[in-house]
Amino acid sequence: MQVTLEAEVGRTTGTRPSRRLRRTGKIPGVVYGMGREAVLVSVERSALREALTTEAGLNAVIRLRTGGEEDLVLVKEIQRDPVRRDVLHVDFVRVDPKATVEVTVPLVLEGEPEKLTREGGLVEQLMHEIQVHAPLHDIPNEIRVDISALSLDEPVRLKDVVLPEGVTCELDPDESVAVGYVPRGVEAARAAAAGGATPEGDETRSGAAEEG
Q: Which residues, in sequence order, are bridge partners of residue 205?
């Protein structure tokens, strides 16, 4: 998704000028990349929020207008106040419209793990987002992960995730995205019913032995 954002150039650097700028409803920032000189800018806080609250989130492709120039950019970094979480500064990186870019995309679980349910287990999502390489204009808003085959014995791994066309991931394909586990209370009840010892420690999870 592509959005347009207006930026002003020529802001004054320093802590005090930045504070004054934020008091007027603007956020200081910088634009850099593609072998060109970095440019100091400021953007309206409300406009920035609007640009980054689409379905694409922080991966929105922004058409940034700075004076008489226009660049395609992605948000590289946002600095926030550690307490109030207000945006203090934003970094924009210029991107080639034909380039493949590295972005972080959320993982969304879908499907009903019937075998896990019959085993009395629950789902634990270990990985909520992944870094992928994607064409600039085909960055997925999210990647859906089918967990219907999940069981106590077999987690869902990265190699099981179907990536959109043109999207690649360089992470370990055997890394677990979601595992099944039996809550401690259920495990204790089963042990008591079977006349065995009450299990100690954490819940039983699929793939636990493989993952240390």
A: 181
CA 21, CA 167: separation in Å to the nearest integer?
Answer: 39
CA angle 96, 98, 103 (to 5 degrees): 70
DSSP E strand stretches across the chain:
2-9, 26-33, 36-44, 61-66, 69-80, 87-94, 100-110, 122-125, 129-135, 143-146, 156-157, 176-182, 204-205
DSSP string for residues in 133-173? EEEGGG--S-EEEE-TT--SS--EEGGG--PPTT-B--S-T
For the entire predicted model, the pTM comes to 0.78
The one-digit pLDDT tens for each residue of the chain (212 residues) are 679 999 999 877 888 888 888 999 999 999 999 999 999 999 999 999 999 888 888 899 999 998 788 999 999 999 998 888 888 999 999 999 998 999 999 999 999 999 999 988 999 999 999 999 999 999 999 999 999 999 999 999 999 999 999 999 999 999 999 999 988 766 666 666 666 555 555 565 666 444 44
Contact 90, 96 (CB under 8 A): no
How far is Cα 89 from Cα 91, in angstroms, rounded to an integer? 7
